[in-house]
UniProtKB/TrEMBL annotation:
PANTHER family, alphabetized: OS06G0520000 PROTEIN (PTHR11802:SF321), SERINE PROTEASE FAMILY S10 SERINE CARBOXYPEPTIDASE (PTHR11802)
Domain of life: Eukaryota
Keyword entries, A-Z: Signal
Family recorded in the similarity comment: Belongs to the peptidase S10 family.
Keyword Transcription regulation belongs to the record: no
Leader peptide range in chain numbering: 1-35
Annotated protein name in UniProt: Carboxypeptidase
One Pfam family hit: Peptidase_S10
């Protein structure tokens, strides 16, 4: 594969030996080709202050849009936080959020980013923000991306642009990274990683493969069981699961602050705000429940001072939703990403999946954070930070 060279401004090429190609649920090194031929709009702004945060931000924050499809006018919005340690040599990470169609802002304030909401009773004023002492930006520069289109502040001028799925949105992420690196040539020679949590764990290996190419009773069907034995087993499981939090069995089962639409037709109408887009705040959960911070983000993001501070284009997104799971079409057209995992790891790519620590052949490692939830970086930030720091530095977990 050869060694890499530093590209000139306006072009971006990056080639690295497989031994340097790494992933974190999954993080994998980028192989870039020449810029795309069709024009893509790009706009960015440096943000030094945010509403609700006292004083100047203690890190470099940049927000902006990059066009990824000219025909539909699709533009993806991102938050870029430069490494607080040594941005000239530290790794560059693209961090995706689950859903699909949850905002990349979740990564900034709930997962591995440099901000947290102050967990205090909401009184009508703007929620406050504080610095996250376990931010992964202490060891890497991170791009938090609103993807697929319709997530966060990413938008399309043509309504047909929102009709995407696993494959098409993954290709748009590849386009985004090409254009982003064209606009930020100083990062073209950096080790680059792609990562994320929840549903992102499905598409990250797909995106990575595109990048690396420059492009028992139930018989596997647990949705529509074909025999009574399977149906009875699934029914028992569903009844038991209804009594615990599906994100973390160690937590109390709390009212959701609209992280995703509910399928319980008897639920409060307010719980369906993201599905029906009712343009009103979601029901307020108890402050001791994890979803309370989601409630705070809804209030913070839909304030005009916040929109102005982040340089959001007026008229593009009416109501910001943490996870936009409503009327927008999305095709889950990749049934499984296991083949992508296999293809990448057998080609020499290192991989880390957060479940339990076992090392397999082909540089594949599974790791567990004790007590971790569905998104382990959310409820175990200290432990996740320690794991990520060791793994990114190629040290034993």
């Amino acid at each position: 594969m050869g060694s890499h060279h530093r590209p000139t401004a306006g072009q971006c090429s990056l080639v690295q030996p497989p031994r340097l190609i790494t992933c974190l649920l999954l993080l994998l090194l980028l192989l870039m080709s020449s810029p795309l031929t069709f024009p893509c709009s790009a706009s960015s702004a440096v943000i030094t202050h945010l509403p609700g945060f006292h004083g100047r931000l203690p890190f470099y924050l940049e927000t902006g849009y990059i066009g990824v499809e000219e025909k539909t006018g699709t533009e993806l919005f991102c938050y870029f936080v430069e490494s607080e340690r040594n941005p000239d040599t530290d790794r560059l990470v693209l961090w995706l959020v689950g859903g699909p169609r949850c905002s990349g802002f979740c990564g900034v304030v709930y997962e591995v980013g440099p901000l947290n909401f102050v967990l205090e009773a909401y009184n009508g004023s703007l929620p406050r923000l504080v610095y996250n002492q376990y931010s992964w930006t202490q060891m890497a520069s991170i791009i938090f991306l609103d993807s697929p289109v319709g997530s966060g502040f990413s938008y399309a001028r043509d309504p047909n642009g929102y009709d995407v799925g696993d494959i098409s949105s993954s290709l748009q992420v590849v386009t985004f990274m090409k254009e982003w690196l064209n606009d930020h040539p100083r990062y073209c020679s950096h080790n680059f990683y792609v990562g994320g949590a929840s549903y992102a764990g499905k598409v990250v290996p797909v995106i990575t493969q595109y990048i690396s190419e420059a492009v028992t009773h139930c018989k596997g069907d647990f949705v529509n069981p074909t025999n009574q034995l399977c149906a009875n087993v699934l029914s028992t499981i569903h009844k038991l699961m209804s009594e615990v939090s599906d994100g973390n069995i160690l937590e109390n089962k709390c009212v959701k602050a609209a992280p995703k639409p509910t399928i319980d037709v008897s639920a409060s109408r307010a719980l369906l705000e993201e599905y029906n887009q009712l343009h009103k705040p979601p029901i307020r959960p108890s402050i001791d429940c994890l979803p309370y911070r989601y409630y705070l983000s809804y209030c913070w993001m839909n304030d005009n001072t916040t929109r102005d501070a982040l340089k959001i284009k007026k008229g593009t997104i009416d109501e910001w939703l943490r996870c936009n799971k409503g009327v927008l079409p999305y095709a889950q057209d990749i049934p499984s990403s296991l083949n992508y995992h296999f293809n990448l790891t057998t080609r020499g790519y290192r991989a880390l999946v957060m479940r339990f620590t076992i090392e397999y052949a082909n540089n594949l490692t599974f790791a567990t954070v004790k007590g971790g939830s569905h998104v382990v970086t959310t409820n175990k930030p200290k432990e996740s930070f320690a794991m990520g720091k060791r793994w990114l530095a190629n040290k034993p977990l």
